[in-house]
User: Which sequence fits this backbone?
């Protein structure tokens, strides 16, 4: 009896009600398989209510189809696929994104040649009929920072670079050593939408990250992208910072402690702005106070002081913030 050959790379695709995109995503992966590159494609379905099961079943044994009870968070879904994967290397692709030709082979070559734990590529973002002229790393102004930090394609001081940029790794741009992710404890399952940033920050503390500036994936933009919900993004950002503040690897480095505090202050500043826009002045005041206590900023202190003024004056501040406020540095890429 012939034993099935072990796959070279497992591609984990989490999905929930993404039937309109899924076939295109699967085809973009399967076309990259070859006699030398054995792919295991795993679709993890979070109780979709659309035609997802029928679409996957049409591919027969070329796709492993796993189902998980509805969790409402991406972490448990990704972890279910990771635990089931049989290859030493795992690539991720969200069901609404696409692999460009050569992505899997090129990232595999990079992660092996650099002996890194994680390989990252750039992305091109698109919506129906439109392809962005600038890449993802260019849009978030990360490319120049990364170029300055690379040595033989590996990011030096990866944790510092990641937290300063606010994260630069969409899951659909990542390939990792499966053992490394298992050793790290996989994706956190309590976060709403930034589970990837949490895991990759923890990896950066202990492992190595290699970067390929070639755009090897297409990231689809649409109204269902979780990163459009700034309340979720900000809430997760604060939880991540609070967890980092307790980690020994961070505590032992004063400059890292300061970086985490400053990042936490940015998140609290944006949280205050969100509360202000929602008309909750008391919570806005508390968020701004937490912000400048974490990392002092005269501007945030000014917001806090203004919150004690009579309500009509505060409304002026609220209207002004609506016009000029920009999201804090952070995980803006989560699909």
Assistant:
């Amino acid at each position: 009896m012939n034993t099935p050959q072990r796959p070279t790379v497992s591609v984990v695709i989490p999905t929930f009600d993404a039937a309109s995109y899924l076939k295109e995503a699967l085809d973009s992966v399967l076309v990259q398989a070859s006699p030398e590159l054995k792919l295991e494609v795993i679709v993890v379905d979070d109780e979709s209510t659309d035609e997802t099961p029928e679409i996957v079943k049409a591919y027969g044994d070329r796709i492993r189809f796993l189902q998980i009870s509805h969790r409402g968070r991406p972490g448990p879904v990704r972890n279910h696929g990771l635990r089931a994967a049989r290859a030493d290397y795992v690539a991720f692709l969200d069901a609404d994104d696409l692999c460009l030709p050569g992505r899997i082979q090129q990232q595999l070559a990079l992660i092996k040649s650099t002996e890194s734990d994680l390989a990252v590529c750039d992305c091109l973002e698109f919506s129906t009929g439109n392809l962005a002229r600038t890449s993802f790393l260019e849009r978030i102004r990360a490319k120049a920072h990364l170029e300055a930090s690379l040595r033989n394609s590996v990011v030096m001081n990866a944790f510092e670079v990641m937290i300063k940029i606010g994260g630069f790794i969409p899951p659909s741009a990542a390939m990792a050593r499966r053992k490394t992710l298992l050793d790290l404890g996989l994706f956190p399952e309590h976060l709403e939408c930034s589970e990837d940033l949490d895991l990759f920050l923890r990896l950066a503390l202990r492992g190595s990250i290699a970067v390929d500036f070639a755009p090897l994936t297409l990231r689809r933009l649409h109204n269902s992208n979780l990163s459009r919900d700034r309340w979720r993004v900000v809430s997760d950002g604060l939880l991540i910072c609070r967890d980092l503040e307790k980690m020994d690897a961070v505590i032992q480095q004063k400059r890292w402690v300061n970086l985490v505090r400053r990042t936490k202050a940015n998140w609290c500043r944006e949280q205050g702005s969100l509360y202000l826009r929602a008309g909750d002045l008391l919570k806005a005041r508390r968020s701004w106070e937490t912000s400048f206590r974490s990392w002092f900023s005269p501007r945030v202190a000014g917001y806090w002081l203004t919150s004690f003024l009579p309500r009509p004056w505060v409304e002026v501040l609220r209207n002004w913030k609506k016009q000029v406020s920009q999201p804090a540095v952070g995980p803006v890429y989560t699909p």
Notes: The mean pLDDT is 90. The chain has two domains: 9-224, 230-324. The longest strand covers residues 209-220. The chain has 15 helices and eleven strands.
